[in-house]
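Sat 14:20. Reprocessing the chain from the morning session after the first attempt stalled halfway. Input below, unchanged.
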Amino acid sequence: MQVSVLLQSKGSEVVTVGPDTTMGEAIDALARHRIGAVVVTGDGHTIEGVVAERDVVLSLSVLGPTVLSRPVSEVMNTDVVTCRPDTTIEHLMSTMTDRRVRHVPVTVDGHLVGLVSIGDVVKDRISGLEFEARVLHEYISHPY
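Finished this time. Tokens:
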């Protein structure tokens, strides 16, 4: 299966913030939307970085509470791992594991079109395994 199928079921809405948004505002967005990461973009399409929960914790550890008034551009991860809608879920899982990332923006020609989290991938994988188990159970129970 491809990432595009995941986006069809979960939606393509992505919570974004501008590079001048304060960390306090970004944290409020994370809490308000109950999400683990926001994409930083100045124009709504081009990815400048990502601020995830891990970045919040690390920046608080290093800079203390003063980080809340600093712009996200000072804290964001700029080494952003992205994928395309035609990326397979298997490849995405491997990339997320190898690169130790939990949130991967989906892009087409450099433009943001969605965001996939490890939770989305796990949910999809569990659904697939449950379906396979159900089919196998029905096959074994009713072989004719």
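The two ends are 30 Å apart (CA to CA).
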